[in-house]
């Protein structure tokens, strides 16, 4: 059966190739702002991932397995999304330095033929080392942090700031591979 990844993320696309040889990519038009955060990070990321997956389900007229995900970074109970600009990126990274934060990913897999949906989420704790303002500014010049939740990419240059990780590395990248593998096995 056709597999569709509901994501424009190059990182998610690259990671899914480790599990599935062939899949289509469809970008969801789901408006994430309509999901209200009600205190549960797990429920929040699952709801956004579900919205993306259902958007794609409503656009296709064939049987398929749809894979969708959403990832957020949290610090002190607040969600750090993608930075608005370079100053916002600086402030985010500065707030993370020398501290631990949490990365939550919600994953949804839908089998349209069976009308079956599986939702799950995962949390990984990441600790940053101390970082100087100069290092943060140099990192921002690379433009890498500007399109990433929490203003860093662990798989890129931002990985040098990571002192410790507890949990799934691929969750922090944006697609927890072991979790997705299990969900794909369960959905068939």
From TrEMBL:
Residues marked Important for substrate specificity (site): 11, 71, 155
Active-site annotation: 70
Entry EC number(s): 3.6.1.9
InterPro entries: ITPase-like_fam, Maf-like
UniProt GO BP: nucleotide metabolic process
Superkingdom of the organism of origin: Bacteria
GO cellular component terms listed in the entry, alphabetical order: cytoplasm
One of the record's GO molecular function terms: dTTP diphosphatase activity
Cofactor requirements of the protein: a divalent metal cation
Keywords: Cytoplasm, Hydrolase, Nucleotide metabolism
Family classification: Belongs to the Maf family. YhdE subfamily.
Protein name: dTTP/UTP pyrophosphatase
Source species of the chain: Clostridium uliginosum
Lineage: Bacteria, Bacillati, Bacillota, Clostridia, Eubacteriales
């Amino acid at each position: 059966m056709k597999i569709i990844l509901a994501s424009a993320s190059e990182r998610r696309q690259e990671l899914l190739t480790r599990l599935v040889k062939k899949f289509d990519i469809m970008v969801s038009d789901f408006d994430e702002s309509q999901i209200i955060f009600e205190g549960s990070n797990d429920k929040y990321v699952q709801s956004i991932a579900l919205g993306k997956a259902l958007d794609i389900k409503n656009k296709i007229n064939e049987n398929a397995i749809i894979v969708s995900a959403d990832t957020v970074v949290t610090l002190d109970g607040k969600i750090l999304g993608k930075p608005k600009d370079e100053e916002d990126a600086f402030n985010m990274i500065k707030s993370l330095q020398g501290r631990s934060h949490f990365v939550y990913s919600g994953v949804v897999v839908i089998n349209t033929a069976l009308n079956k949906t599986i939702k799950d989420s995962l949390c990984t704790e990441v600790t940053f080392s101390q970082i100087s303002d100069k290092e943060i500014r140099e990192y921002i010049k690379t433009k890498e942090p500007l399109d990433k939740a929490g203003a860093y990419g662990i798989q890129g240059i931002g990985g040098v700031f990571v002192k410790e990780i507890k949990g799934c590395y691929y969750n922090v990248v944006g697609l927890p591979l072991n979790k997705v593998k299990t969900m794909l096995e369960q959905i068939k």
